[in-house]
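Table S5 (text form). Sequence records supplied for joint modeling of the two-component complex.
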Amino acid sequence: MINSTVAEISAALAAGDISSVEITQAYLDRIAALNGDLNAFITVCEDSALQQAKAADDARANGDDSPLLGIPLAHKDIFCTKDVLTTCGSRMLHNFVSPYNATVVELFNSAGTVLLGKTNMDEFAMGSSNETSYFGDVKNPWNTECVPGGSSGGSAAAVAADLCAMATGTDTGGSIRQPAAFCGVTGFKPSYGRVSRWGMIAFASSLDQAGPITKSAEDAALMLNVMSGLDKKDSTSIDRPVEDFTASLNQPLKGLRIGVPKQHFAEGLSAEVEQAVRDALAEYEKLGAIIKEVDLTNSHLSVSAYYVVAPAEASANLSRFDGVRYGYRCEDPVDLEDMYKRTRSEGFGEEVKRRIMIGTYALSAGFYDAYYRKAQKIRRLIKDDFDRAFEEVDVIIGPTSPHTAFKLGSKSDPVSMYLEDIYTIAVNLAGLPAASIPVGVANGMPMGMQIIGKYFDEAKILNVAHQFQQHTDWHKQKSSAIAAANGEA
Amino acid sequence: MALDKTEVEKIAHLARLHISESEAEEVTTRITDILTLIDQMQSVDTEAVEPLAHPLDVVQRLRVDEVTEENQRDTLQQLAPASEDGLYLVPKVLD
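The corresponding structure-token record, covering 584 residues in total, follows.
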């Protein structure tokens, strides 16, 4: 049952075919068996998970039938979880036991889910390979010599290897979608403001957004039903009614207008990913969709604008880590400045320090107009491109990543790593919702397709993703190692 | 735009980071590479473009100025590396 979707486990729990304690124990056993190799979890909450599962079974016996009641999940270690270690993948927070829950965590707790543990991630969500974590690399379950993607690499690997039924992630420039693509799972970044950021350790506040990582689009809809909505504790949370995202999953796609950005099929895209996405577009045509080319003229500027906006906001957000109130403090500081400098230099890893310095430079006296303000203007151009395209189409589809997962240790220079997110970053700059769903397998590694929607049109993206998953089975494919661990031939 | 080692040391100081002598050269090279990537955006004329701070151009939500949270000083201070009598301790600032 551990390889089932949330929808299937939910039905089995409702029918009494299995208890939450049983399925929770099955995942805990699976984590014990595979996490040593994969390193997807930083913390496993064995005792509290079983207590929560027991409480869920009791609630069900008393008539509670919430859809996610008793479903075991994992939270990315960026979400504050009360009384549980919350590291954000950093030495800076290696000892930080959060005194409160993030709103997202509260919402899942209220829905009756079971927290299996906290997943590994790039340090402070800065990375596209999960190699910047203080707690070691996560391995891709399809090939343990490859990266799982990042920054939500632990969550994507955990879902792909059936270490949990579902997981949360966060996405600032592609951190849900790219690892979902690399691990062959479904990942969803909602519209900016759709999900509360309160208690989610901040990286770039104008870009960060939490979302689900799951085994199907239907499961993503079930998670979004719980996660979404106004939170008065997050001043950027949007006051907008939350619909039932599962309601329109089965709408037929006849007449759907799909935009295909020519810039996402240009130089740099691998032949096998291009073929897989083109095959998927042909499948959509069979379902009655109309394909149109769209022009995202300024998309080539998205990476450069992002590497101003994100580091600038990060340099401000990460100034709170000073060794005074919580987290790491260096040994025997001689004075206050020595304490700040050594705490931060020893507590942060190379990539985080690099981005703090880029951001500090961009915001320093005399450079604001040339960098931050310029980048905000580029953001406007990128958003305008999407607005124009969405006058003619309902969704935009292209590859999530230019290629399949790369080898661990193969990208040592930061700029080549940054260019990994070439198709995903513009979506964050514009604040749009987008999913990545599995679209094929090449040379034993999965590939992802990105579906971008209009603001707050999450339901349409999920509908488009779900219909594809009703007519193909790429989302059900597993690596041979994981299939073998599941006892399949 | 290329930076030299002195400029990088100045940025590090502003960010309260310590760069050791042995790291300085590599850090300078990496940051210069990233600034070269960033400079691609200078190729477009944005004179007439309004900067975008929020994709939906929403305005700040305000609330009534009243206390809504309870005081958790003792709980929160337990997380501190050093504290005493309700105060956070840091190295001596004044002699």
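Note: The radius of gyration of chain A is 21 Å.
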